[in-house]
Amino acid sequence: MSAASTGLQTAQYFTVGAIYDYCLTIAPEVQLIWGRRWNVIRITFTLTRYLTFIGAAMTTYAAVADRSKFKSCSTFNNASKALHMISIIAAEGLLIFRTFAFWRQSKKMLIWLLTLAATCIAGSVGLTKVVDSLNPPAPGGIYAFYRTRSSLC
Prior knowledge:
Elements: H1 3-34, H2 40-64, H3 74-102, H4 107-134
Helix pairs in contact: 1-2, 2-3, 3-4
């Protein structure tokens, strides 16, 4: 099995797992979340919960669709990257809110969590820039490894 097909199969498994998780937790979500007023926590939860599905749909589309007729995929790729980053940051923000509440709203813990989050985000961005500079994109763009499945730009 090639690396591309293994990656596609893994993405499909994660998508099925996310849908299964959604089906298991929709009833408590309706009861505990939907009736509440909109605040930072609810917005963060909603972003975490639903951007994942949009990101999975974009990843699946990139893996199976024939986009060879387009001149450039950079807009789609940039939107996909941004959506995934927002989803990850929202999930981390939700984890920070939950940990802060668990620690009885300790200001010291909040400062530590925010410092750790900022350090991790800065490190991730820096590492991504270093890796991108060392490894220029393949001639097919970011999704070139899926060429065995479709003709992508």
